[in-house]
Structure formats: C-alpha cells, structure tokens
Amino acid sequence: MVQILMTDSSHSSKVLLIWSFLLFVQLFVLPAAGQTSAWILPGEKETLAVYSLGGGTSSARETYLSESTYSGWSVAAVTDSWTGRSGESFMEYRRVHSDILFSSMTNWLGGGSTWQVMGNYSYSLERQVVKSTASDLLLGPVAMINIGCLYNRANSNNPATAEGYLALGLCADYTYRYSIRRYPMVFQTSLYVPLAGVGFAPDYDQPYWHMYHYNQYGRALHVVWPGNNHVVRGQIALVLPVFDGRLRVGADLDYYHNRLGGHLRRITHTQVELGYVFTFEHKAWRL
To answer: SS3 for 133-187, per residue?
Structure first.
C-alpha cells in the first residue's frame, strides 16, 4: 500500500471509542426475530459480499525532507467477499478485500498539510481449520497489492510522491456466533500480514522524471520483508440481522512502518465502517 507518513497518536483511545460504538450497536440495534444465524459461510459457487462506507482518522510521520508528523480525517469505500470453491478444492474459500481511502492531514506545528489517496487489494485462498456451530476459523495465503500517492501542499517544488508494494503473506478470518436477547449476532475479525515481496520507493535524489528518462527503475525497487516493512492490517466487525437483511458494523485498523528509499515513514488508519451483506449465487451460462 502506499506508505506515506504516520504517527504515534493515542491508539488506545481510538480503539476504546470503536469498541464502545460496537457495544452500543449490539445493545440497542435489535435485529428481527426468527433468524437462526446471522452468518453462515457460503456454499459452492455462492458469494457473501459486504459493501461498506467508512470514516475515521489518519496519522503519519515521515522523514523525507525533515521529520514531520501529520494527523487528520479520512473516508473510505470498502468491499469484502467470501466465495465457496469447488468441493474438491483443498482451499475451500476465496477471500477478496479491496478499499480506496482519501485522507487530509495537517502538521499542527505549522508544517503545512497533505492529501493522501491510497488503495488496497488482497486476494487469498483459505481453508477452514476450525468448524463448529459457534465458530469458524479460516487460514490461507494472501497476495496483497498496496499503492498510493501523497500530495504535500506545502512543497511546491516536488509536491507529489507515490509508493507501493506487492507482497505475499498470510490471512486469518475468525467468526464467532452468539445471541443477545435471543437475537443472533456474529463477531468477526480478520488479520493480514505480508511476509515477502517487492516495494516501490524512490530515493531522495531520484526525481521521477529522471528515473523515467534514464530507465533507472532498479534503484526504486526494494525487497520487502518484516525486517524492513512492518505492516499489519486488521478488521473487527459485528454482523446484525435487521429486518430482512444484515448489517455489518466494524472497523479497519491499519499500521505501516518502513524505511525504504532512504527515509522513514509510519502511517496508521482507523476507520469505522457500516456495510450491507449481499448473497450471490453463481449460475452457469448456457448458449
């Protein structure tokens, strides 16, 4: 993902606020009675898809020209889906996550402001290693693409930078089913960790036009692994049956920290999201 700037702000207070919001939803948003389960994994050729909109906070720290810390707000559009594969497949499910995020951040010490646009795409194949009436656990490999750009409104000479990476890693999905006041609910959590890949991050003294003109892309490419690219992406959510549908209320928590191209960047995003669950059945087309 694009990694540009991020900070060490008070994550504990953000997480407490998110959990308080989720608890409020559990206690006061009552789903319709008569549903036996709020979430069942899809069958073969069936897809569960969640389309969400979110908003939250972003913070960043970077040392491109001088050490700067930024913080501000962000909005995002998010899609998650789970698809049942053939019964003969060892990896029983396909999991896809994608999002696009815009954030506006300010250096409150007078260092100007910055805009960030960032996109993520993750594709994983998962196997169900825990299966019961109360819970499911899916594990599997994931391919992650993260890319983005930053526009620094205080730097008129070189205002825009772009970075990203392509990596392979691990994905885990856990689902727990329970009831409150006889109403079925589901708690979900997902975790993505990239382990190895290639990152794009130009050096200080390598303008983009120079890199393009002289075909010097090699200096901008870096091998990334947990030793130089600390990335963790997690999701927590509640699935709530409401009337004849299902709402998914949750949060995305992202953390990126690397030192590529000669400068450090640390970035975090905290997004509260509200989405709706759809079920699709894949049918064969016959001519």
So the answer is: CCEEEEEEEEEEEEEEEEEECCCCCCCEEEEEEEEEEEEEEEEEEEEECCEEEEE
